[in-house]
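Deliverable D5.2: sample structural annotation.
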Amino acid sequence: MNKISGLVITFNESRNIVDCIRSLKRVCDDVVVVDSLSADDTVALAEAEGATVIRQPFLGDGPQRTAGLPYCRHDWVLNLDADERLEDDLADWLARTDLDALPADAVESRRRNFVGDRTTRHAGQYPDYVLRIFNRQRADFKPVVAHSRIQAGRVIRNEGHITHYSYRDYADIFNRACLYANWMAKDLAASSKPVHGWHPMLHGTSAFLKHYVIKTGFLAGLDGLTLSLGKALASYLKYARALEIRRAIR
């Protein structure tokens, strides 16, 4: 059987961390949790489940995940967010597949995203391929503050699934849009990319049309409309906030 380490980053994830770790332990004999100084009992719950917990002030999404890699005992790593779970098909594939024999440094799988107890194929919610399985000797996380991706050379695609409890409700969609937009704005403001006054509206409108029209969010009723508006808000605020940051340091 493969030797796989599980990796999770957390901040106040007491409602999710136990189920996440138990999901990882279906295929991992080693689980590392990098906690951003949670104020709840995330750490105690993780340690009770047998995870190795590293306490680390938040460095940004990518660097925070990278900080956990030296504590992983195995080269192959399965990285989940605390609100994600393995589904049976992906767990079964991992259990029977020799990862070292694959012509790949990383593996993509499909993800089902939920709003509350509902999921949809529209508005970019499915199949939403994500890269969660990788060899840490040959791949690493992009060093950005928000929505880091694994950087790998050879990537193959698997049709197994991850469940993602993305949003608790509609309010959570907009709360997260504001939070992530602020993080992404910091990366954008620090980069050399040009940002102009018309960019917030352009990118916000483009994000809405992409998710509501091109990715057929209109077929998902109010869920599809709300998700598309959330994506539009996040994109608009990313560019607006980046402009604000740059103006403040001039």
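Annotation notes: The chain has seven helices and eleven strands. Helices lie at 17-24, 42-48, 61-68, 88-96, 170-190, 199-214, 221-248.
The annotation will be released with the project's public dataset once the embargo ends.
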